[in-house]
Amino acid sequence: MLGAIIGDIAGSRFEFDNHRSKEFELFTDKCFTTDDSIMTLGVAKAIMEAERSAGSAGRDDAFYSALGDLTVKSMREIGQRYPNCGYGGKFHHWMFSQNPQPYGSFGNGAAMRVSPVGFAALTLSEVRRMSEAVTAVTHNHPEGIKGAEATAVAIFMARNGATPEEIREAVVRDYYPLDFTIDGIRESYQFNETCQETVPQAIVAFLESSSFEDAIRIAISVGGDSDTLAAITGGIAEAYYGVPADLRERALRFLDKDLRAIYDEWAAFSAEE
Questions:
Q1: Is the pLDDT of residue 233 over 70?
Q2: Which CATH number applies to 2-18+32-272?
Q3: Which of 54, 84, 94, 243 would be 63's cystine partner, CB 3.0–4.6 Å?
Q4: Taking 90 as the threshold, does the pLDDT of residue 271 lie above it?
Q5: What are the structural domain ranges in the chain?
């Protein structure tokens, strides 16, 4: 999850002022946490609460049902405390609605917030069910479900020792063609908020990287929706490379005490998994 937060923070200042190069200062006083980090923490909180509620019953059908309900509760409660962090119009309405319902979205918000699933799931089957449970509460379009699942599967595979080539093969087989390079699309890639035009680019940014930081830099250099693209890449890169301690400490300074408390709870929870 921290990788997604780092990608979000590093990319935040470039979302509407793209920087199509890997050369830039990773964190500056112009960086900030956006809805990407806040909703990622919301999903993490929902997963932890669902686990506590499940108890000895484990991850049965009731668990996945509760996870969906808790995702709604958690994202709305946290999001309403941070109302001006870059949410899309439909999601913002959903957060404050008296009767929040999924609205058929295939926006890349589905993928930017899903990284906790890739770290919490114990099997690929769990990845798929957990991913849908936390995604379909808003992004219930098939492309939204697919974008989140592809991201979570890539994280799960990276966390469990898969090679980049194995991850590429799985994504191409089950989700998206990856028949491009970042250098090949950098100059022509445009701002796009859909899963189908963000998730493949984020995955390729990871596949072409040589380290965690390099992955973040490649993702931001693509342009487009920089914070979200880098958040998606960052989740996969964390699972594969880990996060350097200095980047961890620098990034966590951007979280206020309430968001940091959720992160610290997640760090303890994930260490127990």
A1: yes
A2: 1.10.4080.10
A3: 54
A4: no
A5: 2-18+32-272
